[in-house]
Amino acid sequence: MFRKNRKFGLRILSLIKLHYLRYAYNVSDKKKSTGKKSPGGTFYLPSLLEGFLRAAAEA
Question: Which domain of life does this protein belong to (predicted)?
């Protein structure tokens, strides 16, 4: 049981990491193209929560 839960936790962590990396990449991409600062934190948290909830629903 514990091993299964640990696997699930690791999966969620990796999903979050992927989500964060994709977000960071998008922001840097926008900065390059427009030259303006993007409003970072506003998009980050909702998308992170969304990814977390999606992972929980899939399991």
Answer: Bacteria
Residues 6 or more apart in contact with residue 56 via CB below 8 angstroms: 12
Query: Would you state the pLDDT for residue 51?
Result: 72
Domain ranges of the chain: 2-58
DSSP assignment letter at 37:
P
Residues 6+ apart with CB under 8 A from 27: 38, 40
Exposure b/e, 13-51, CB count within 10 A at least 16 = b? eebeeebeeebeeebeeeeeeeeeeeeeeeeeeeeeeeb
Q: Which residue has the higher pLDDT, 10 or 1?
A: 10
Tell me the pLDDT tens digit for each residue of 36-49: 454 544 445 566 67
